[in-house]
Amino acid sequence: MTTQSEANATTIQAVLAREEQRCQAISNQRWEELESLLTDDLTHVHMLGRQEDKAAYLAGVRNNPRTVTRKDLQVRVYADTAVITGAMTNTREGREDHARVTQVWVRKDGQWYQAAFQASRNA
Predict the structure, then answer these.
(1) CA–CA separation, 123 vs 103, rounded Å?
(2) What long-range pairs does 86-92 form, CB within 8 A, spacing at least 24?
(3) CA nearest to 58, candidates 71, 42, 72
């Protein structure tokens, strides 16, 4: 029998694995894989406040390759919704941008998809 805490730990690991997959897809320019990790109604808010839908986000990231790393991630699970908070570093053309990020992931048909992303530049 699986306990509630074991089920929650399994869910957290699944969400973190999808976030790692998203970071690797961006870093390795695997655009179809990245697209498959996002909901069709994605809202993506960049560090400087620009908001994009899924199509605009994917077009922008394709034209501006980067390496993405995450750390200090915390996950809170609410049924079929998970919220990830933590640090992010974008590295492109030798320059690093550091941010705090909040993401919303939703479970559909047993799989997790990113539905919202909000980054705030670290001071």
Answers:
(1) 20
(2) 87/122, 88/119, 90/66, 91/66, 91/67, 92/64, 92/65, 92/66, 92/67
(3) 42
Which region, left, alpha or beta, applies to residue 12 given φ > 0 means left and ψ of -120 to 50 means alpha? alpha
pLDDT in tens, 76-109: 999 999 999 999 999 999 899 999 999 999 999 9
Report how far apart, in Å, the C-alpha atoms of 81 and of each of 8, 119, 123 are: 12, 19, 29
**DSSP-based three-state secondary structure for 96:** strand
For the stretch 113-123, pLDDT in tens is 999 999 999 86
Q: Tell me how far apart the alpha carbons of residues 27 and 21 are, in angstroms, rounded to a whole number.
A: 10
Tokens representing 70 are 């995450």
Burial class (CB in 10 A: 0-12, 13-18, 19+), 49: exposed
Check: CB of residue 71 under 8 Å from CB of residue 96.
no
